[in-house]
Write a structure and sequence with these properties.
Elements: E1 3-8, H1 13-24, E2 29-36, E3 44-45, E4 53-57, H2 60-64, E5 68-71, H3 75-85, E6 91-94, H4 110-113, E7 121-124, H5 128-144, E8 146-155, H6 161-176, E9 201-202, E10 208-209, H7 210-222, E11 230-236, E12 243-251, H8 257-266, E13 270-272, H9 284-287, E14 293-301, E15 307-314, H10 318-333
Parallel strand pairs: 1-2, 1-5, 2-4, 5-6, 6-7, 8-11, 13-14
Antiparallel strand pairs: 3-4, 8-12, 9-10, 12-15, 14-15
Helix pairs in contact: 1-10, 5-7, 5-8, 5-10
């Protein structure tokens, strides 16, 4: 039996990726509704691989009638409309940050904690960067218990949406032509540059950015380590798609590099790419469009007694967002 599926935010990057995955993964559909603002109602939205869909006005009754509702439209929309969707009997999967930190709302990566997915109600999908890092950490944590985490991320322009990708393209063309580079969406020029500024700064968190705190808060919740010492520096880089991260993890028990590679190679949702002699390691170019999260450069961290270093690349629109949300629904259907 198919599901009555609703997608809020179908015109955005994550929503478009989700619609494509509904088609390519043959998700069982009884009906598919795509919702937009009243001004956009009646317009069409592309459905990759299928005929365009007609946008419907976001309305409580239509949301309640859906058995699976995906929110891909940002925290403000979710805060307003998720409670209305929850008045129905279906499962609501929210990809925004609106409810991730509520104690009663499960934060789920199916490969880690599928047992927390309810039959109905609300499930939060983690931030894209957190998902990629936590997926790589999970098999190591299960073997040796994570005790400390340091992360530096390298986040693609498309992580800031279509506007971010368009700005990188325009800036690159202008710079190569010797023309003035205009900054509109990002805080600094991104073409031929990097900057450690993803999302806003939080003075109450010692001027960490919200993105950095998302990684800390969500990793603690996903791995059930509420006191985990963790620090992150999140950096925007001039890459079109797919995020990367340098991960430095310390464990309670000793874990050899060989044991770590073995655990990562067997980890669900991961692909070990780790042959330095052949220049084989994760890159965002290779990760772009892939479902698996790539992990490599696995080595001992000599700065601590039981530390490991590794490098991760993953498509932030697929496993980092749309694919993870759809896998939550697929798991709930079983």
């Amino acid at each position: 039996m198919g599901q009555r599926v609703g997608v809020v935010g179908a015109t955005g990057a994550v929503g478009q990726e989700l619609l494509g995955l509904l088609h390519t993964r043959a998700y069982p559909l009884d009906a598919l509704h795509v919702f937009g603002s009243p001004a956009s109602a009646g317009g069409s939205v592309p459905w990759p691989g299928r005929e365009p869909l007609t946008l419907e006005a976001l309305e409580a009754g239509a949301l309640r009638a859906c058995s699976r509702v995906f929110f891909c439209a940002g925290a403000e929309v979710s805060r307003t409309w998720v409670p209305r969707a929850l008045e129905g009997e279906g499962l609501v999967i929210d990809s925004s940050s609106a409810f991730r930190y509520e104690p009663e709302v499960p934060l789920v990566i199916p490969e880690l904690n599928a047992a927390e997915i309810p039959a109905r109600g609300l499930v939060a999908s983690p931030n894209c960067t957190t998902t990629l890092v936590a997926l790589a950490l999970a098999p190591l944590h299960r073997r040796a218990r994570l005790t400390r985490l340091v992360v530096a991320t390298y986040q693609a322009a498309s992580g800031a949406g279509a506007a971010g990708l368009a700005e990188l393209t325009a800036q690159t063309r202008a710079a190569l032509a010797g023309e003035e580079v205009h900054v509109e969406h990002f805080p600094r020029p991104l073409a031929f540059n990097v900057f450690p500024h993803v999302d806003g700064f939080l003075p109450e968190e010692g001027w960490a950015t919200r993105e950095e705190m998302k990684l800390t808060w969500e990793t603690r919740k996903l791995l059930d380590l509420p006191e985990l010492p963790c620090v992150a520096t999140c950096v925007r880089v001039p890459v079109q798609r797919a995020h990367s991260a340098a991960v430095f993890a310390e464990f309670a028990e000793a874990l050899t590099v060989e044991q770590a590679r073995e655990a990562l190679a067997a980890g669900p949702g991961l692909r070990l790419v780790d042959d330095p002699q052949a220049a084989r390691y994760p890159t965002p170019l290779e990760a772009s469009g892939a479902d698996a999260v790539l992990v490599g450069r696995v080595r001992k961290d000599p700065s601590c007694a039981r530390g490991l270093a590794l490098f991760v690349s993953g498509d932030q629109l697929r496993k980092g967002a749309a694919l993870n949300a759809l896998q939550i629904a697929e798991q709930a259907d079983r």
